[in-house]
C-alpha cells in the first residue's frame, strides 16, 4: 500500500483487562480521524510493530513484535500479550512505518494467591462529548492508580453540531457528526471523535482499564432487543450489532469479547490477588423491558414480577456461582445503574426509576440473597449512569433503615454528561430524607478513587467546579470508609 504520509496514531493507545500474566494493548490507526474510513484502505491491513519495556525510555525492552491492524476491524490492534510478570508496571508503544505512537503505561494484576496490602482504582462513567470538556480525565491520568473501572456511556448516540455543543469550538467539526448513530461507520466515527480528546487519551495511556457499557453505546435506555422507541426488532438488532462491533473494536478487550452479530458477552471476572474479586456486569443486553413504559413510577405488580430480570438468568447464575467460589476479602461488582433503592419522596408510595435495579427488585433480592448465602461479608458495588456522586449503604430491606447492611455502593458522577452540575441539586434534601441509606449526594462532575486494603475500603469523591470551560482544578469533596467485616459508611 501507499506509505503512511500522515501520523496514524491520532487516537492514542490503551490497555485493559489485566491478568497476572497478561494485558491487552490497543491502538487504532487513523491518519484522518474525522473522515469515514480515517484515510485508510477499506480492505487489507497494516502491520504494526510494538514494544514492551520495563522503563519509559525503552532502554530495557523485554518484548517486541508485529501485530495486524485489519481494515475489517477498523484498523484496530488488540494485542493479548501473555507471559508477563505479575504485579509489574510496563510501558508500551507502537510503530507503523516511520510513525511512533504515544507511550502507554500499564500494569499486570497480582498473582491470584498473592497477599495484596493495598490497591487504588478509579471509577468513571458518562462522558458526553458535547456537554463538556474531559477535565476530570486529565486529573485522573495523574492519579496513582492500579487500574480504572469505566462503567458505561463511553460515547453518546446523539447528533453533535459543528461547534461541539458546550465545547463551543471555533474550528468547526465535520458535518458527518451532526446526525444520530445507526450504522457501523456512524459508531466507528463517534469513537474516533471522542478518542481525539487529549485528556481521554492521557487517562487511557496512564492506566489499564476494565470497561463495561451502559445504554448510550447503542441507544438511550434500550432493554435487550427493545429499543427506546420500540423499533422493529430486526432493525434494532442490526443497529445493536453495529454498535457492539464498534465498541469491541475501540476498547482494550480480548478476542472472547469479539461480538457475533448483535451478541457480545461482556460480563467477566478478574481476581486481584486475595484482596478482591471483580465481577463486571452487563445490565443492558439481557434485561427485561422496563416496567410501565420506563420512567419513574410507583412499584406495582408489573415491576415486582419475580420473573423480571436486569441481568438475564445465565449472568445471574454466573454472578452467584462466583460469590460462592470467591475467597477474596472484597467482592467488587462493577456495573451500570443504581443498585440501591432510590425513592423520589418519603413514604411507601414513592416513585422509583424503572430503568435501575429499583425497576427489577426481584433481581436485586436474588443477588443479595445469593451473596448472603455465599457468606460474602464485604460487598462493594461500583456504579455510574446517574451523573451524581452518591454513597449508599446496601440494606437487606431498604424500607427498614434498621435492617442489616450487606454492603456499600459507590456511585460515581459523570465525566462531562449533564454539563457543569451543582453541589446540591434541587432534590438534595428530599432525596436524603427519602433514602436514609444515602450518605452522600453531589451532582458536580468528577470521579471516585476507590482504595482497598484488607481492613477497609475508602471512596474519595473528586469533583471539579465545571467542565464547560477547560482547566478547572480537582478537589476531594468527600471521603467515606467501610470496614471489612462490618459494612457501613462513615466519613473519613
TrEMBL record:
<dbReference type="InterPro" id="IPR052900">
    <property type="entry name" value="Phospholipid_Metab_Enz"/>
</dbReference>
<dbReference type="InterPro" id="IPR032093">
    <property type="entry name" value="PhoD_N"/>
</dbReference>
<dbReference type="InterPro" id="IPR029052">
    <property type="entry name" value="Metallo-depent_PP-like"/>
</dbReference>
<dbReference type="Pfam" id="PF09423">
    <property type="entry name" value="PhoD"/>
</dbReference>
<feature type="domain" description="Phospholipase D N-terminal">
    <location>
        <begin position="11"/>
        <end position="108"/>
    </location>
</feature>
<dbReference type="InterPro" id="IPR018946">
    <property type="entry name" value="PhoD-like_MPP"/>
</dbReference>
<feature type="domain" description="PhoD-like phosphatase metallophosphatase">
    <location>
        <begin position="121"/>
        <end position="461"/>
    </location>
</feature>
<protein>
    <submittedName>
        <fullName>Alkaline phosphatase D family protein</fullName>
    </submittedName>
</protein>
<dbReference type="InterPro" id="IPR038607">
    <property type="entry name" value="PhoD-like_sf"/>
</dbReference>
<dbReference type="Pfam" id="PF16655">
    <property type="entry name" value="PhoD_N"/>
</dbReference>
Amino acid at each position: 500500500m501507499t506509505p503512511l504520509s500522515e501520523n496514524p496514531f491520532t487516537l492514542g493507545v490503551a490497555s485493559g483487562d489485566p491478568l497476572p500474566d497478561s494485558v491487552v494493548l490497543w491502538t487504532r490507526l487513523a491518519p484522518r480521524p474525522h473522515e469515514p474510513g480515517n484515510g485508510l484502505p477499506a480492505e487489507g491491513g497494516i502491520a504494526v510493530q510494538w514494544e514492551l519495556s520495563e522503563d519509559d525510555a525503552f532502554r530495557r525492552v523485554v518484548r517486541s513484535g508485529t501485530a495486524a491492524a485489519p481494515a475489517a476491524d477498523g484498523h484496530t490492534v488488540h494485542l493479548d500479550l501473555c507471559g508477563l510478570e505479575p504485579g509489574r508496571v510496563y510501558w508500551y508503544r507502537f510503530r507503523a512505518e516511520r510513525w511512533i505512537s504515544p507511550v502507554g503505561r500499564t500494569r499486570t494484576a497480582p498473582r491470584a494467591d498473592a497477599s495484596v496490602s493495598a490497591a487504588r482504582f478509579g471509577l468513571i462513567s458518562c462522558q458526553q462529548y458535547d456537554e463538556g470538556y474531559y477535565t476530570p480525565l486529565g486529573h485522573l491520568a495523574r492519579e496513582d492508580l492500579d487500574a480504572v473501572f469505566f462503567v458505561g456511556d463511553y460515547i453518546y448516540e446523539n447528533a453533535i453540531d459543528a461547534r461541539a455543543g458546550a465545547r463551543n469550538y471555533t474550528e468547526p467539526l465535520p458535518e458527518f457528526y451532526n446526525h444520530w448513530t445507526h450504522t457501523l461507520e456512524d459508531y466507528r466515527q463517534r469513537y474516533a471523535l471522542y478518542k481525539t480528546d487529549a485528556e481521554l487519551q492521557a487517562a487511557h495511556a496512564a492506566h489499564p482499564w476494565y470497561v463495561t457499557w451502559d445504554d448510550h453505546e447503542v441507544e438511550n435506555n434500550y432493554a435487550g432487543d427493545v429499543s427506546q422507541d420500540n423499533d422493529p426488532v430486526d432493525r434494532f438488532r442490526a443497529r445493536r450489532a453495529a454498535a457492539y462491533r464498534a465498541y469491541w473494536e475501540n476498547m482494550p478487550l480480548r478476542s472472547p469479547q469479539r461480538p457475533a452479530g448483535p451478541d457480545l458477552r461482556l460480563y467477566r471476572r478478574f481476581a486481584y490477588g486475595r484482596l478482591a474479586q471483580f465481577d463486571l456486569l452487563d445490565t443492558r443486553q439481557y434485561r427485561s423491558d422496563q416496567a410501565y413504559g420506563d420512567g419513574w413510577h410507583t412499584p406495582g405488580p408489573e415491576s415486582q414480577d419475580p420473573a423480571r430480570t436486569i441481568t438475564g438468568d445465565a449472568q445471574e447464575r454466573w454472578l452467584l456461582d462466583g460469590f460462592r467460589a470467591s475467597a477474596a476479602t472484597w467482592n467488587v461488582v462493577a456495573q451500570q445503574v443504581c443498585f440501591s433503592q432510590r425513592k423520589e419522596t418519603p413514604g411507601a408510595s414513592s416513585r422509583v426509576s424503572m430503568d435501575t435495579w429499583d425497576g427489577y427488585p426481584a433481581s436485586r433480592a436474588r443477588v443479595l440473597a445469593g451473596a448472603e448465602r455465599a457468606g460474602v461479608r464485604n460487598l462493594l458495588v461500583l456504579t455510574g449512569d446517574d451523573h451524581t456522586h452518591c454513597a449508599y449503604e446496601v440494606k437487606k430491606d431498604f424500607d427498614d433503615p434498621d435492617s442489616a447492611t450487606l454492603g456499600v455502593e459507590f456511585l460515581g458522577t459523570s465525566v462531562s454528561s449533564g454539563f457543569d452540575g451543582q453541589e446540591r441539586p434541587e432534590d438534595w434534601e428530599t432525596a436524603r430524607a427519602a433514602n436514609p441509606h444515602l450518605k452522600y449526594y453531589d451532582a458536580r462532575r468528577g470521579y471516585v478513587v476507590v482504595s482497598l486494603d484488607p481492613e477497609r475500603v475508602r471512596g474519595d469523591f473528586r469533583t471539579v467546579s465545571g467542565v464547560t470551560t477547560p482547566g478547572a482544578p480537582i478537589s476531594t469533596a468527600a471521603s467515606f470508609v467501610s470496614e471489612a467485616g462490618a459494612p457501613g459508611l462513615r466519613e473519613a
